[in-house]
Design brief:
alpha/beta, TIM Barrel, nine-stranded parallel β-sheet
């Protein structure tokens, strides 16, 4: 019996051990596989979070700054209406560029010349508002280039708000007010076309009354030898000047170069002179070419309003061009032709 008991124990004991081991394995296995997936995915993040900051070498470095260089906006906004040449007490010349407002590129090219000048802006054109805004921001002097009735009516369109000799004084003044509202900041008025209107005393009287009310001055473009613009201005007590030289009556480089030099000689002879040009590519190219020559001429280039101040200002009843008996009638360009200017 003892032997039989030993055999039974020997056979049963190993099976009990195997069952106990298997149960342990079964209990431990779920403990590993049942870990949430989120916990497994957070592990790499935890390792990244422990990375020392100094080991991150892919961060962009700030670009080096250039010391003592003013920002572009400051350079652009610098006023250009500062005399660049000669003493203020010496001979002076003013250059006025008419017909601005059709394209902002015209203004940008003129501003890039960086010489003191005046622009004359036509109301109601596609780029009038932007031109006025940029000229005001950059300190470039502006005139209202007021459309007026030409002598030759066929094929000529002076533009929006044109002044006609057939209009009443009330209508004329209302149109001038509307034009001035479209060119805020204008310091004076000159005529766009107007060979018929500037010979009409009644129409000019209404125009000058409105100009005086706004405290502006008159620049006669002299598109006709018979103009009475300066006479009417003085009668109304309005400061007035008139054009001496048309810079680009002939739109070619040689002719424009000759006229610019003539403007300087006229200023030397008389003490001051006014030249009027237009935003033709040829005109801008010549002014760019002759810039150094103009700066070295001994004649101070100034905005046109500067000729109304100082000891060389024409007195009442006189003009800058009083010595000239007859002047050309160039300058009456049609709105269609102006719009085609690049």
């Amino acid at each position: 019996m003892v032997v039989l008991s030993i055999l039974v124990v020997a056979l049963i004991l190993p099976r009990l051990n195997d069952t106990r081991t298997a149960s342990v394995i079964v209990r431990k296995t779920p403990a590993v596989e049942s870990r949430p997936l989120t916990a497994l995915r957070r592990a790499p993040a935890a390792r990244v979070a422990t990375t020392p900051p100094q080991q991150k070498t892919d961060m962009p470095r700030p670009l080096p700054t250039r010391p003592n260089v003013p920002p572009t906006a400051a350079r652009t906004a610098r006023p250009l209406t500062v005399p660049l040449t000669g003493p203020l007490t010496g001979p002076r010349a003013a250059i006025v560029i008419d017909d601005l407002g059709q394209s902002l590129s015209h203004f940008e090219q003129i501003a890039a010349l960086n010489i003191p000048l005046t622009i004359a802006v036509i109301p109601g054109l596609p780029a009038t508002a932007r031109t006025v805004s940029e000229a005001s921001r950059r300190g470039i002097e502006m005139l209202l280039h007021q459309p007026m009735e030409p002598r030759e009516e066929s094929g000529k369109n002076p533009g929006e708000g044109v002044l006609l000799t057939s209009m009443s004084a009330e209508t004329l003044r209302g149109r001038v007010r509307a034009s001035l509202a479209a060119v805020p900041g204008a310091v004076g008025v000159n005529n766009h076309m107007g060979s018929r209107f500037t010979e009409d005393a009644a129409g000019l009287g209404a125009l000058m009354a409105e100009i005086k009310e706004h405290g502006l001055f008159w620049l006669d473009s002299r598109t006709t030898p018979g103009t009475r613009g300066v006479e009417a201005a003085h009668a109304a007590g309005v400061p007035a000047l008139e054009r001496d030289i048309f810079i680009d009556a002939e739109v070619n480089v040689e002719g424009i170069r000759r006229q610019v030099r003539k403007l300087i000689e006229t200023a030397r002879d008389r003490g001051s002179a006014v030249g009027i040009g237009h935003p033709h590519p040829e005109t801008i190219a010549v002014l760019r070419e002759l810039r150094a020559e103009l700066l070295a001429s001994g004649v101070t280039l100034v905005p046109v309003s500067s000729l109304l101040h100082g000891n060389r200002t024409p007195g009442p009843g006189t003009t800058l061009a009083a010595a000239v008996a007859v002047k050309g009638t160039a300058g009456e360009q049609t709105a269609k032709g102006k719009a085609a200017t690049p």
